[in-house]
Amino acid sequence: VRRKNEPRHWVINPKVSTLLHRNCAGVARPTTKEIAQLATMRSALAGNKGASARQLMSDLVTQSGLQSLSRMNVYRAKEKIMSEEDAHYKEDLQLVSAWCREFESLNPGSVAKMERDDQNRFLSLTIINAPMVRRVTEGGMHVSEADSMPSKHRLYKGQVMCLTGQDGNGKVVTLALKLCPQDSEEQRQAFSQALKELVIDSESGRTLREWLQAGTPT
């Protein structure tokens, strides 16, 4: 109801308004916000970030018994949950530098270095676990060649370079890894150089390069 001479102000007349449905046989659909708050929805996404809206709808119907779901609302709920997680990743990135310093402090001789681009965005991260490398080299175990594979993380579509070895039980362990934008010769050379310059014997100053050149198993 619009008041006279006040065209921009509206009021609701309680005498004629009602919250009851009249002659309505429809079922109210959950809103995007309500779907995003469901524990079933969040657990389904936690197990499979790439789940489609159709698949999520099927899970919600089966596990929560919801009916009359809108595929668009389910899709928007998924985007809402994922955007909330994205915000946490941005906050976590600010802690990476501190984590690198702590990692190097707790693992003497190790390398943990993050690089940023000219816009202060994440560019690459190199981690070399010196104690684990020493354990493998001192035991005369095998060190495999570095390999590169595409990242499957939805927020980082770069490459993951990895160096693995075997411990005394023959179990494969990660010795070093690098996250970088792409698999290029420059990135491979930088990763290889950082590995070869790693000091594996603090008393003699022997590097991993010298250990490899001595004819140790690789």
How does this model look, in words?
The chain is α+β, with helices and mostly antiparallel strands and 218 residues long. It has eight helices and seven strands, in the order H-H-H-H-H-E-E-H-E-E-E-H-E-E-H. The strands form two sheets. A five-stranded antiparallel beta sheet has the order 1-2-5-4-3, with helices on both faces. A two-stranded antiparallel sheet has the order 6-7. It starts with 31 loop residues before the first helix and ends in a 5-residue tail after the last helix. The model has no long low-confidence stretch (mean pLDDT 78).
- Main sheet attributes: strand count, strand direction, barrel closure: 5 strands, antiparallel
What is the arithmetic mean of pLDDT? 78
Structural Rg? 28 Å
Oligomer: single chain
Shape: elongated
Strand order, largest beta sheet: 1-2-5-4-3
Distance between the termini: 84 Å
**Beta-sheet strand percentage?**
15-25%
**Number of helical segments with 4 or more residues:** 8
Tally of DSSP β-strands: 7
**Which class of secondary structure composition applies to the elements?**
alpha+beta
Q: What are the segments in which pLDDT stays under 50 over at least 5 consecutive residues?
A: none
Order of helices and strands: HHHHHEEHEEEHEEH
